[in-house]
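# nightly structure sweep
# worker-07 picked up a monomer target from the shared queue
# config: single-sequence mode, recycle default, output format = structure tokens
# input follows
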Amino acid sequence: MPLAQNPLSIEVTLPREDVALITVEGYLDVDTATEFQHHLANQLHHGRRHFLLDLSAVPFMDSSGMNIILRVYQEARTLPGSVHIISPTPAVRRILDLTGVSITVPVSEGLEEALARVDAHDEDREEDRDESQAGPDGQRA
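# output follows
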């Protein structure tokens, strides 16, 4: 069996207990998307709610890669969690912008910015929960 033409390297680190930083290197296409999907599914299985996808070393991504990003985005939202793309290469950023994926999935320039967005997401969820527990006069039940 021949080796993949464009091997994919994926490294997973945990900046926080519920945050997975997935660093992808190589072509994210129909030949490599399944491996990417397995890494994301594994992190979901282990209770991660937030996914930071570092695409700074991905020179090319096709619709297979975008579909997986959108699928994990939909799954993370139900947890509730979030997905953030970090430092996509210009070619990948252009694809994300042209397809509208960058409107749905936030794009950050670095890890610190993405983690700040995770914090803001969790704060928003906390505020929503507090408001839903308040009585009609605004007081907590």
